Amino acid sequence: MTSDGKPMIGSGADHGATLADLAKELAASKPYAVRDAGKGGGGKPAGSTGGKPNTSIKRSEFDALSPPERTTFLRGGGSISE
Question: 4, 7, 27, 39: most buried, per Cβ within 10 A?
Fold first, then answer.
């Protein structure tokens, strides 16, 4: 509902208001309540790999790591080259 009590027309099915429509209206009416600066995106910096390094090390280097270091390396997206 809008502030004057009328049904809100939105972009959802059957012209109902979606969560995005409601968030946009909240940001316009009470900007202090919303931290979003209106920027789109998926939350990661442009050009990043999403926090996973594209790292490859030789088998001999991998063998020299401790078991916890091996686990961290592999879970972080590292790979072993021959």
Answer: 27
